[in-house]
Amino acid sequence: MRCGSGSAARDLQRADVTSPSPSGDISGASRNGARSRKPVSPAPLAAIVPRVRPYAGTLAICAVCLVIAAGVGLAFPLIVRHLLDAAFQQRDRALLDRIALGMILLFALQGAMNFVQVYLLTSTSERVVARLREDVFAHLVRLSPGFFTEQRTGELTSRLSADLAVLQTLLATWVSEASRQILFLVGGVVLLTFTHPQLTATTLGVVPIVVGLGFFFGRRLRRASVGLQDRVAQSLGMANEAFAQIRTVQSFVREEEESRRYGSLLSGVVDVAVARAKMRATLFGIVGFVAFGAVVVVLWQGGRLVLAGALTPGALVSFLLLAITVAAAVGSLVSLFGSYQEAVGAATRVFELLALHPTVPEPAHPVRLPKPVRGAVTLEQVRFQYAPELHEVLTDVTFTIAPGEVVALVGPSGAGKTTVASLIPRFWDVTEGRITLDGVDIRQLSFADLRGAIGLVPQEPALFSGSVRDNIAYGKPDAPDDEVIAAARAAHAMEFIERLPDGMATLVGERGVKLSGGQRQRIALARIFLKDPAVVVLDEATSSLDNESERLVEEAMEELLRGRSTLIIAHRLRTVRRADRVLVLERGLVVEEGTHEELVGQAGLYGRLYQAELRD
Question: Looking at the whole model, is its pTM more than 0.85?
Answer without folding.
Answer: no
